[in-house]
Amino acid sequence: MDEQDHGVGALSVLVATAQIVLPALVSATVLLVVLQMRPAHVVRTPRSPVARRPAAELAVLVRPLSLPARLLAAQRTARAAVSALEDDLPDVVDLLAVAAASGCNVRLAVETAAANSDGPAARLLQSALRGVTAGERLSEALAAVVGRLPEAEADAFRPLEAVLVDSDHYGTPLGPSLQRLSDDLTVHRQRRAEARARRIPVRLLLPLVLCVLPAFALLTVAPLFAGMARDALADSPSFRSDSEGSP
């Protein structure tokens, strides 16, 4: 009987708490909706500098705490830019090889590849062509484009720059050099795709541990333990005596 009274008392406390909390939540929600629906022409009274000072001080205190998140976001953005450039380079090199095989010189091949692609590598070639239009040599324009890139993106673009500069300066046959570069870049892209595929199980491990396994335990193990606890409670002498003494 004491256990039953205790359970009834706990349930009463939960019901009373819900009766207090739920109206408060509903009122807060309605207030937020009303504030969002205010007319746009309502003139807000400007706050004094004294009233704005705590908010400014809080922003100054919170800003250093967001520095690691901003650094991680910047690194993620840089890695995404390098990955996009490396994924686009084989396609652009193939376009250059096709243009060279059809009889185009270096500049015409670059113009053809830049006009028929819209990826990061093609945009770099378009930037170099704008320098050529302004009077620079193709090698100088490519060097200027590479000089403006971050280090990782510049390292990814330099093999193509070297092939184009060698053909522009020394008359090296463009087709065979581009074919070898295309093969190397294609193999590199395939290896990076395989490496990303191998990282997928590691990234799925945290959601699996935090979400799937607890849900599986609740659906399978928790009912088993609940049944064992109910059976153990039914076999206990105190529970039998309470059940026999109750009307």
In short:
Helix content is 85%, strand content 0%. The chain has 247 residues and is an all-alpha fold. The protein has a domain at 69-200: Receptor-associated Protein, CATH 1.20.81.
Layout of secondary structure:
Blueprint: H1 2-36, H2 49-62, H3 67-101, H4 106-115, H5 120-133, H6 138-148, H7 151-170, H8 174-235, H9 237-245
Description of the molecule:
The chain is mainly alpha-helical. The chain has a domain of 132 residues: Up-down Bundle (Receptor-associated Protein), CATH 1.20.81. It contains 9 helices and no strands. α3 runs parallel beside α7 and α5 crosses α6. It is elongated and about 100 Å long. The protein starts with a helix and ends with a helix. 17% of the residues are buried.
Helix segment tally: 9
CATH class identity of the domain at 69-200: Mainly Alpha
State the distance separating the first and last CA atoms: 11 Å
Largest sheet: none
Low-confidence stretches: 1-11, 37-45
Apparent shape:
elongated
Q: Mean pLDDT, nearest integer?
A: 76
Radius of gyration, in angstroms, nearest whole number? 34 Å
Class derived from helix and strand content? mainly alpha
CATH topology of the domain at 69-200: Receptor-associated Protein
Q: Which band does the percent of strand residues land in?
A: under 5%
Count the beta strands: 0
Mind telling me which CATH architecture of the domain at 69-200 this is?
Up-down Bundle
Which bin fits the share of residues in helices?
A: over 70%
Order of helices and strands: HHHHHHHHH
